[in-house]
Amino acid sequence: SSRMATLVQSSMVSGLHAAYRAKDNGVKQAMFYVLHGARMPAILVETSFISNQKEEKLLRNAEYRDDIAQSIAHGVLSYADETKIAFLEQ
Q1: Could you count the other beta carbons within 10 Å of the beta carbon of residue 72?
Q2: Which of 14, 31, 52, 86 is the most buried (most CB within 10 A)?
Q3: Three-state SS for 8?
């Protein structure tokens, strides 16, 4: 999960920084109830703070939401590709 979170975070920052000036707040770890006991890689993605007026306004923009989704998907696919290679080399 940590490696997948790192790849998704990196993908989001690189994919969103130029157009939206996305900040890299890093990857944090905590015991989230919804993820506890998962038998697969699992992450929570914090995309915006609705208490921030600029970010809340961005969330109303469909293109911004699509860009977020594309960045997350790219990070997950990177993780899948990396894991597949690691599995084949064993």
Answers
A1: 18
A2: 14
A3: helix
Task: Provide the total of helices (H) and of strands (E) in the chain, helices listed first.
Answer: 3, 0
In three-state secondary structure terms, 67 is: helix
User: Where does residue 37 fall: left (phi above 0), alpha (psi -120 to 50 degrees), or beta otherwise?
Assistant: left
Distance CA 4, CA 65 (A): 20
Tokens 């989001």 -> residue: 12
Rounded Cα distance between 17 and 29, Å, is 23
| 11 torsion bin: left (phi>0), alpha (psi -120 to 50), beta (else) | alpha
